[in-house]
């Protein structure tokens, strides 16, 4: 009798906990995205949108050196946005006539449709569509990429190599800290859970918050170059814009795509004649040293290794070192 009474009280307690948790969880799941900081608001206000197959894509396009024919297109990484380039943006405008960056579909201020089959192929087509929109489809383009953007650049390089009509004409390619060799790529635990989580993925993405995000992202920065809390909030605001946290699991399928299309994308790097350069933060836990560089046996390619404490986001952690390395590459041919 006593045991039965105890079980009844326990059931009542769990019912009360459940009744309390439901409205709290409902309120949590409807927390609005954080307000944009003045700097991030300025970045958005100075950019523009174009439409790709009914979807709005955000981009930046700055005119730099007058009289120069040089154009550079910047391709950002996962899970952030074109704002990753803000620390080197002004420096690039001093060397190039046009400096262009976009937020890939599903990132930053661009649309984030769901459900949607996000793919590297589609992102490459969006880059091509942007340059057609800007009337630059017949110009020679310098590509500068990071992380996820490296794989998009590899697909663009493959298309260029195939001489397909409507594709970019690539003058040079510079990649940085991306998993261009799938066998040396070490995804974070959260990335593994989300890309292979099945029915758990939608739950995990809904439960993701600033604390989880910042705890997951901070370790990929070097110990002396970690972002401030305000910088992390800017990154999180970009992700939360248009409920972007709900498509992270779909975006992460790029890791599986890298493995599936390794021959296509690594092969594109191995068989071209344009100048190729790598800028590498050697403390990167996602693309670890020295395994990453040991596989870099590509023709006409060169490498800039930054200071020992620089990690996965070299353009944010060491913007001057990154910019100097890139300018050294651009001025070498």
UniProtKB/TrEMBL annotation:
**InterPro entries, per this entry?**
AB_hydrolase_1, AB_hydrolase_fold, AB_hydrolase_sf, Epox_hydrolase-like
Describe the family membership recorded for this protein in Swiss-Prot or TrEMBL.
Belongs to the AB hydrolase superfamily.
Keyword Transmembrane helix assigned to the entry: answer is yes
Location within or outside the cell: Endoplasmic reticulum membrane
Q: Which GO terms describe its cellular component?
A: endoplasmic reticulum membrane
Keywords noted in UniProt: Endoplasmic reticulum, Hydrolase, Membrane, Transmembrane, Transmembrane helix
Protein name according to UniProt = AB hydrolase-1 domain-containing protein
| Record-level Gene Ontology MF annotations | monoacylglycerol lipase activity
* Domain of life from the UniProt record: Eukaryota
Q: Does the keyword Hydrolase apply?
A: yes
Q: Which Pfam families match?
A: Abhydrolase_1
């Amino acid at each position: 009798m006593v045991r039965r009474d105890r079980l009844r009280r326990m059931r009542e307690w769990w019912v009360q906990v459940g009744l309390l948790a439901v409205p709290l969880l409902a309120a949590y799941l409807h927390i609005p995205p954080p307000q944009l900081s003045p700097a991030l608001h300025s970045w958005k206000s100075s950019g523009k949108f174009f439409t790709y197959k009914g979807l709005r894509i955000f981009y930046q396009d700055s005119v730099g050196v007058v009289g120069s024919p040089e154009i550079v297109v910047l391709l950002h990484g996962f899970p952030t946005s074109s704002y990753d380039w803000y620390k080197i943006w002004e420096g690039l405008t001093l060397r190039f006539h046009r400096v262009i960056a976009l937020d890939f579909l599903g990132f930053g201020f661009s649309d984030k449709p769901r459900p949607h089959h996000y793919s590297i192929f589609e992102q490459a087509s969006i880059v091509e569509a942007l340059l057609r929109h800007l009337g630059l489809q017949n110009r020679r383009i310098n590509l500068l990429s990071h992380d996820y953007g490296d794989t998009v650049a590899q697909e663009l390089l493959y298309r260029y190599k195939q001489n397909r009509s409507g594709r970019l004409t690539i003058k040079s390619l510079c990649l940085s800290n991306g998993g261009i060799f799938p066998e040396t790529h070490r995804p974070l635990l959260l990335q593994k859970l989300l890309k292979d989580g099945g029915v758990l993925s939608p739950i995990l993405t809904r439960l993701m918050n600033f604390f989880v995000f910042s705890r997951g992202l901070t370790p990929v920065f070097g110990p002396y170059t970690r972002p401030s809390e305000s910088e992390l909030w800017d990154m999180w605001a970009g992700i939360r814009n248009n409920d972007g946290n709900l498509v992270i699991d779909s975006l992460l399928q790029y890791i599986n795509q890298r493995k599936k299309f390794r021959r296509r994308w690594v092969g594109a790097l191995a068989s071209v004649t344009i100048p190729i350069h790598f800028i590498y933060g050697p403390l990167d836990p996602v693309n670890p040293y020295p395994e990453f560089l040991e596989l870099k046996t590509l023709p006409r390619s060169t490498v800039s290794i930054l200071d020992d404490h620089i990690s996965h986001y070299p353009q944010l952690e060491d913007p001057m070192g990154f910019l100097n390395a890139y300018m050294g590459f651009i001025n070498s041919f």
